[in-house]
Design brief:
Layout: H1 4-10, H2 14-22, E1 28-34, E2 41-47, E3 50-57, H3 65-80, E4 98-100, E5 103-109, H4 121-138, H5 151-163, H6 170-194, E6 200-202, E7 211-214, E8 217-220, E9 227-229, H7 243-257, H8 271-288, H9 294-298, H10 305-322
Antiparallel strand pairs: 1-2, 2-3, 3-5, 4-5, 6-9, 7-8
Length: 331
């Protein structure tokens, strides 16, 4: 049986989308393109005699109005500080969270571009400067409503949820349970080594796909996962590959970052722990959303023994990575 969220999205017809946009004073030209988004529904909407807009319809029940508004206020503060983020457009009454029937939605200007080149030192340095400027604004005061990235929410809750489902083949369930128990012990050890790390407002999901590069200028998009957390959460997703390659990339990123903001090297203890939490959280996210018809279509491999075999192998490798010395920042 499909859940209420799935049914709600099924009722989000093209006419409903266009009608919602036109309530904000725009004249749609009938062109509508669904963009790659699974948590929410996002569309490019053609506007008469103007550039297209991006319309984002929020998943019911995921964020409260207060949490969404905090994201919007943060993004607009960054934009007002002349940081190249894509901030929501406001209505005539200066509202950014709109409603049409049972739907909550937001409009954005369209921005194009491609992902940054993570093997390009200049791109990494520019990304470091970019993130530092975001963090300077993010550190001014905390979120009041949005969550904090934690081992419990990303790790323990994810493990508990997966073990309560029938996604894992019975032959692999014991291996997953034992491995993730050890993994979370190692994650907590990494956090203990890092010590008392300062939390600030973050983008939260700062992977290369959320950064658009055009003419050597970056725009950052999709603050939907904004939350409190350590600064390194917005940096580590630029780093992958072997240890030598990541060390070089880290140096490039922090060369840019420290031009605008100090970086606490103790947070390097968190990189592999945060990677492990993201891996666990991703699998739980797919399982939680499996009733949404968009997910089986987009991720058909998730509900298969091969996926869980590979996931367990990935987590074993991550456990080994956490037992190594953290990356060294060579400034």
């Amino acid at each position: 049986m499909q859940d209420n969220v799935s049914l709600a999205y099924q009722d989000l017809s093209p006419d409903t989308i266009l009608d919602a946009v036109e309530t904000q004073g725009y004249r749609c030209d009938g062109h509508l393109l669904a963009l790659n988004s699974y948590e929410n529904r996002v569309y490019q909407v053609g506007i008469e005699n103007a550039d297209p807009l991006i319309a984002k319809f929020y998943r019911p029940g995921r964020w409260s109005d207060e949490e969404i508004q905090e994201e919007h206020d943060f993004t607009r503060a960054l934009w007002e500080a002349e940081i190249p983020v894509v901030a929501p457009l406001s209505s005539e009454s200066d509202e950014t969270l709109m409603r049409h029937g049972s739907y909550r939605f937001t409009l954005y200007p369209r921005r194009g571009g491609h992902a940054p080149e993570l093997d390009n030192p200049d791109h990494l340095e520019q990304l470091g400067r970019f993130v530092a400027r975001i963090h300077n604004v993010g550190a001014l005061f905390p979120f009041q409503y949005r969550p904090t990235l934690s081992v419990n929410s990303f790790g323990d809750d994810s493990r508990r949820f997966i073990l309560g489902t029938d996604f894992i083949p019975p032959s692999l369930e014991e291996a997953y349970a034992s491995l993730t128990e050890d993994l979370l012990i190692a994650v907590r050890t990494c956090f203990e080594r890092a010590g008392d790390v300062k939390h600030l407002r973050l983008h939260g999901d700062n992977h290369p796909g959320n950064i658009l590069c055009r003419d050597e200028t970056f725009h950052i998009v999709d603050f939907d996962d904004a939350r409190m957390g350590p600064a390194v959460q917005d940096l580590w997703m630029f780093l992958s590959g072997d240890r030598e390659y990541m060390t070089k990339g880290l140096g490039d990123v922090l060369k840019g970052y420290t031009q605008f903001r100090d970086f606490n090297p103790a947070e390097l203890n968190l990189i592999e722990a945060l990677r492990a939490l993201r891996q666990m959280h991703f699998s739980a996210w797919l399982a939680r959303r499996w009733q949404d018809p968009a997910f089986p279509k987009a991720f058909p491999w998730f509900d298969s023994p091969r996926y869980w075999e590979n996931h367990i192998l990935e987590l074993r490798e991550q456990l080994a990575a956490m037992q190594e010395y953290p990356l060294v920042w060579i400034g």
